[in-house]
Structure formats: C-alpha cells, structure tokens
Amino acid sequence: MKIVRLFACALILFLSLTKLSATLMTPLPVEELTQRANLILHATVTSKVCERTAEGRIITRVELDVSEVLKGNLTTNHFTVVHGGGTVGNIRTEVSGQVEYTVGEEVVAFLVLNPRGEGVTLGLAQGKFHVWKDKQSGEKFAHNIFHGATEQETAQDEKKAAKLALKELAHAAKGGAK
After folding, report:
1. What DSSP string describes 115-156?
2. 3-state secondary structure of 102
3. What is the pLDDT of residues 133-168, one digit of tens each?
4. Are 64 and 78 in contact (CB under 8 A)?
5. How many whole angstroms from its chain centre is CA 27?
6. Residue 167 and residue 148: Cα distance in Å, rounded?
7. Which of 2, 34, 129, 159 is the right S-S partner for 108, CB 3.0 to 4.6 Å?
C-alpha cells in the first residue's frame, strides 16, 4: 500500500511539473478563410522581432515582403503581422495553436486587421499557408495545418498526398471556386 501511495505522489508531482497544452480547432475551409479575411497576401517573411507592449504583453512582429495581394488593398510591398507570444530576454510566452512564421519562408497569409492596421493571422495557425516548390516539376504548392500536403508527405507517398497547388489557393483566395 505504501508503494502505491508513493507512486501516486510521484505521478502527481511529475504531472504538476510537466507543461501541457492543447488546442481544439474546427478546420476552416479555404472559402471561409477567404470570406473572413480583410487581406490575403502572397509574401516572404523578412524579419521577426519579439517585444513587450505598453501593457506588458509579449508579442511577435513579423515583417513581410509582399509579392502579390490576393485580396484587399495595399499601397506598399511591405506589411507587418503581429501575434501573441514570443521571447523577450529570458521570458517566453506561448499561445497554444498560434501561428509560427520563419524568416525566409514563403507564405500565403489570410489576415484580419487590428485597430492599428496591422495584420493578425486569421484562425491562429489556420490562416498561414507555407509555400514549397516541387523539386521535379518546379510547381509551387501550399499547406497549412488542415489543407494541402507537406513536402515530406508528398515525398513519402506521392499518390496519397492531397497537394494544394499555389495557383489553386491563389484562385480561391481571389474569390474563385476551388
């Protein structure tokens, strides 16, 4: 009986020290992402900086070099996207399900605008599609957490991979049928 109690106490201690996170998301169809977005951009990530707001929240600012505006109006080829979370000094804040941008990454971003006119990725990670290029055909494809196949999935099983061509995503983002 002592062993069972000792094990139970050890398990409770272990679980209390373990970081747990979960996000439940309902997949948003590309058509719904398109309808909800104020701005849809095909762009490359040029920089990413974490900072504290005046209220003390940690946010990440992502700078995009825009190659095409698929929906909305933009008067420049540079645009800022912000999202909660990041690292400032030795303090890190994470938002479960939050989008992650990587410097140098080519993306299609479905955005809503905050009161300051900055972009906020729609549906957390759902509103960002990573763009990749097929090494054999040279064609570009896109994927997010619910739509399209990754380059790795395609390499593993070309026939089963549900690839989403960038031109199809761009057509849908411009309001066309998928």
Report:
1. TTS-EEETTGGGGEEEEEE-TTT--EEEE-SSSS--HHHHHH
2. coil
3. 999 899 999 999 999 988 888 777 766 568 899 999
4. yes
5. 13
6. 13
7. 129
